[in-house]
């Protein structure tokens, strides 16, 4: 194959975007271009975004632009994969848009009528539906803040002693966090040492992947050092269990305004033994974890029930806070539970961890690793009270932002394969379906759902999951049922905007067949530019940065599929070359990256009703072989 001649180096990216169909012309082409052709920024900041950690969220402000552009005040929006409620939040903030949101609409040239929209969200997940319902229908923010401060004050008064710690001079202070360390057995001298002593150094901070015995100086790969286990009595279950043995490694605290750190001391051990004598509250769930795709027999050793994800101290403190919140009722109780759970799994469990960053003197504490249930060899125990106090301000502001509006949001805890809404009753759909095998939402949410005592029915969970026996065909069938319901309840003139992310051509093609079988087809496509990628978007091999955004309308009869493999190759490399030249000419580094180019290629093929020909990593390998940053070769060169 030879390189086709292109119409100049400044090839306009719009030339590979199909003209919008007649059914898309309800919105001017310039507005469609503004929304879909150029990357629309979706920042991962703000009180609404930061109120509750939930996988693959999109900022509600970005969604609000789509809703405002495609609807008018009083219209009803539907999302069949409601997640944590961001589509509902977006519908509500259309009534009271920020100056920044107004300015962005003007900058894009959108013809927008600001005003409240209504929304109906279906969410299969028990946690997601709870979060979405509470955030879109919040308690009175003044009453919430007062109740939360009362609950926190009572907790600190009665249980604050559990976080007492003395500073290096012996003065009384409070614990900020404590790093625990797995114990290892040296493969040479058989001595038991801590992972901290064998692998960690400070100033600069490093965590070595090589085991170095502090006793005999033997060095070995970490896999050669056996983890030491211990048998202990489980107060919750009333039985023995075997778990990884850990030791206190380093204590971080504060005395007044002074922050400090030091090795663990005898005083810390004395406090630990005092906490061991404290009874476990009866509200602690005895919930057996339905381990599935996220289970790893190594670092999950001994973790069979939800309470095993906690240190004894944090389990007692959180459970007593949960009991205090339960003394309230109605929306206020739900708001307090929302606040507690917002910190719980991400920061209050042993999934919290430390990382070593370049040029830092000490290790950096972070939250649980998103998208997995990973427990490191250096788990961190945070001060629950300090964390909840920080979180309170954000959540109170989020409730203030939403409370008192005239828009209505209904959140249904149920499957979008069976929607109880009349046909033709919805004006617009905005949705963000699960991305194949990327995120097992039900498994990730189980810890928080155990406290709510409401769990996700995984029957209709649209996911590629070996554990659930769902391959790509089962995933496609579930999406088809969901999209068919969306098509049924959508008015004839209504549109659907869908954000999706995958590095797998097979997943993209399953998605395409699902929406086509449901009666939809792509009318326009673009990219949502998430300013800070999710963990898996940053670290996964073949990950895609910048989620394609598809505008769906009633399906038109069109010739689907790719005529031939040669034709597909020729089209791919020609389009890739054109996109790259356009990005280079426009001096836009983001557009010139392999990740963004792959997203653009995906939208190109879906817009032309063709299958995506290959996975992202195949494209990335081809891209890496190109000799010059500004010149791409054809596939046959």
Break the fold down into its secondary structure elements and pairings.
Layout: H1 29-37, E1 40-42, H2 47-50, H3 60-70, E2 76-79, H4 86-93, H5 99-108, E3 118-123, H6 126-136, H7 141-159, E4 164-166, E5 172-185, E6 192-194, H8 195-199, E7 200-201, E8 206-207, E9 210-212, E10 219-221, E11 226-227, E12 229-234, E13 239-244, E14 246-255, E15 258-263, H9 266-276, H10 312-325, H11 330-347, E16 353-355, E17 364-366, E18 380-382, H12 384-402, E19 409-413, E20 426-431, H13 441-452, H14 472-489, E21 490-499, H15 505-517, E22 520-530, H16 535-539, E23 547-554, H17 565-585, H18 594-607, H19 616-624
Helix pairs in contact: 3-4, 6-11, 7-10, 7-11, 7-12, 10-11, 11-12, 14-15, 17-18
**Radius of gyration, Cα only, in angstroms?**
27 Å
Side by side, the strands of the main sheet go 1-22-23-21-20-2-3-19
Number of helices: 19
Shape: globular
- Total strand segments: 23
Kindly name the structural category: alpha+beta
What percentage of the residues does DSSP assign to strands (E)? Answer: 15-25%
Helical content stands at 25-40%
Uncertain runs: 1-16, 21-25, 532-544, 558-567, 630-637
Largest sheet: 8 strands, mixed
Distance from N terminus to C terminus (CA atoms, Å) equals: 8 Å
Q: How much is the average pLDDT?
A: 88
